[in-house]
Amino acid sequence: VPYDFNEGLGTRKAIFVPFPQAVPLRALIDKENCINCKACAKACASGAINYDMQTSYTDLNVGVIIGAVGFKTYDPEPRHDYGYGLYDNIITAMEFERLLNAAGPTGGHVVRPSDCKEPIRVGFVNCVGSRDKNTNIYCSGVCCMYTIKNAQLLKEKRPETDHTVMYIDIRTPFRAYEESYNRSRNLGVKFLRGRPVEVKEDPVTKNIKVRVEDTLAGEMRNLEFDLLVLATGIVPNEGIGQIQQLLKLSKAADGLLMEAHPKLKPVDTTIDGVYLAGCASGPKDIPYAVSQGSACAGRATILLKNKKAITEGITAVVEPDVCVGCQVCVPMCPFQAIKFDEKENKANVVKALCKGCGTCVAACPTGALEQSHFKNNQLLAQIKNVFKFQEVAA
Question: Does the structural domain 63-310 have CATH classification 3.40.50.300?
Answer without folding.
Answer: no
